[in-house]
Design brief:
The protein is mainly β and 92 residues long. It has a single domain, classed as Peptide methionine sulfoxide reductase (Metal Binding Protein, Guanine Nucleotide Exchange Factor, Chain A). Helix content is 0%, strand content 35%. The chain is built from no helices and 8 strands. It has strands spanning 2-3, 20-22, 29-32, 36-37, 45-46, 55-61, 64-69, 75-80. Strands 1-8-7-6 form a 4-stranded antiparallel sheet, with no helix packed on it. The protein has a two-stranded antiparallel ribbon with strand order 2-3. It is globular. Residues 1-92 form the MsrB domain. This is Methionine sulfoxide reductase B1. Its main location: cytoplasm. InterPro entries: Met_Sox_Rdtase_MsrB_dom, MsrB_Met_sulfoxide_reductase, Mss4-like_sf.
Length: 92
């Protein structure tokens, strides 16, 4: 999943320091830096969530899902079908 921020450009795309990514609205834990991978889009991307309920998704159109914080519903970005690393990492 690619995470995007629409305010002032994305500052975490090339950020690979160890840590936990949290929702900017409520602080709920979303992703570990261990699940982050280098992606061709301008946004950071992750292979799995911290908690089973870290995010919720709904289909916006075929092959594209809107991703929201699982706690407060804050918009986090999109997930695209068949997009991601090809190393067999789990998807959420």
């Amino acid at each position: 999943m690619s995470f995007c921020s629409f305010f002032g450009g994305e500052v975490f795309k090339d950020h690979f320091k160890p840590g936990i990514y949290v929702c900017s609205k409520c602080g709920y834990q979303l992703f570990s830096s261990h699940s982050k991978y280098d992606h061709s889009s301008p946004w950071p991307a992750f292979t799995e969530t911290i908690h089973e309920d870290s995010v919720s998704k709904h289909q916006e159109r075929p092959g594209a899902y809107k991703v929201l914080c699982g706690k407060c519903g804050n918009g986090l970005g999109h997930e695209f079908v068949n997009d991601g690393p090809k190393k067999g990492l789990s998807r959420f």
